[in-house]
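dude i think i finally got it to work??
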Amino acid sequence: MPDLTTVAALSSLRPAPTEPVAGRLASLYDGLRDELVAVRRDIHAHPELGRTEVRTTGLLAERLRAAGLEPRLLPGSGLVCDIGPGPAVTGRQRIALRADLDALPVVDTTGLPWASTTRGIAHACGHDVHTASVLGAGLLLAQVADELTTGVRLVFQPAEEVQPGGALDVIAAGGLDGVGQIYAFHCDPKVDVGQVGTRIGPITSASDEVTVTISGSGGHTSRPHLTGDVVFALGQVITQVPAILGRRLDPRSGVNLTWGAVQSGSAHNAIPASGVLRGTLRCLDVRAWEKASEVFQAAVENVVASLEVEVEVRHHRGVPPVENAEHATTVLEEAARVVLGAGSVLLTEQSLGGEDFAWYLTKVPGAMARLGTRTPGGHTYDIHQGDLRVDERAVEVGALFLARAALLAG
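look at this
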C-alpha cells in the first residue's frame, strides 16, 4: 500500500453529524481512508480513455462485490450498483450518485510516485477523485444499508470526455431506471479542499463542435475578382458570425462562438480552392441551445451569399447545459454544511465548459457541485493540464459529502 502519512484526516474541517445513521458516517470512514486514497492513486497510475475503462471497471466491481454488493456491468465499460431497498419496497425511486471513469490524452507531468504509467494518457480532470469518492460513499452506505429509507444507486460511467458523452450509454442501458434524483461533483482546483461550490440553474454550458468548409475555383491573388476568394470569405465568417449570434439569440443565454482552427492555402500569391474553420459553440441556456443550430447555419450562409463561394456547415451536437434543480442544490448545500461546517458552501461561477452529466438532468432532477481540491495556501492548478495535483483529502470530503447528500435526498 502507498505511504499515506502525508494524508491528513478532515476532523478539523468538519463537525460530526448528529442523526443516528448519518452521524456514524465519519467514524465509519476511518476504516476506509487509507484504502480509498490508495484506490485513487491506483486509478491515477493506470488511466484509461473513454469507453476503454475496463481495468478501472474491474477494480471497482471487485471492491463492491467484496462489500457484499452486486454491481451490474454496463456494455463495454462502466457499471451501476444498487444499495439498500428498491422502489418496490419503499415506494420511492432511488437516489443516484455519479462518477466518471475516463482520463484524457494528456501527458502526466506531476512527477508523483503514482503518476500515469500509460504514455500520453493522464487523469488531468480529477475523474480519479470522483471515482474514489463515489466508491467511498457507496462503501459507507453499504454499511448502513439496512437502515436506509430510500435506496441508492452508484453510477460509474464511461466516456465523459467524449462528446456527446457516456451518460447517454448509461441511460440507454437502463442505468437511470428506477432513479428519481441524481447527484455528482466535479473537482475544482481553484477552490480549497473542504469547500464546495454550488449554484441553482445553469452551472455549465452546452458545448457543440462546428465546422465550416468554404470552396471556390481558386485563382491568382492578382485577379480576386475572377474567382470566389475563399480566404476573404473565411475572414468574414470568423468576424461576422459571432456578432450575428449575439443579435439573433438572447444575450442572457451566454452564447459564445470561438474559432479554434482555420486552414487554407499554402502560397502567398495563390487564392486557394478550399478552406476550413473549426470551433465551438457554447450556450448556458437550453432553449437558446436548441435554436442555435438553425441560427448558426443561416448566419454563415448569409455572410458568404454574395462572395461566389460554396459553403458547407456542420454542427455536431455535444452536451446540453447542466441545469441544477433548486431542491437538489439545497440538498448538496445542506450536506456540505453538515459534513464541513457552515462556511463551507460557496457560490460557484458558471462555466462555459461542457459536462455530460447534463444528459441525466434531462431525465431526472439533480445537481452537480464543485469540490475544492486545492491545498489551502498552495499552488492553483488547472484541469486538463498534465501537472494537475489535488489535495487527497478531497477524496474523503467527496465521499462523506455525497453519502450525506444521498441520505438527505431520500
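The chain has two domains: 22-204+322-409, 206-319.
im so relieved honestly
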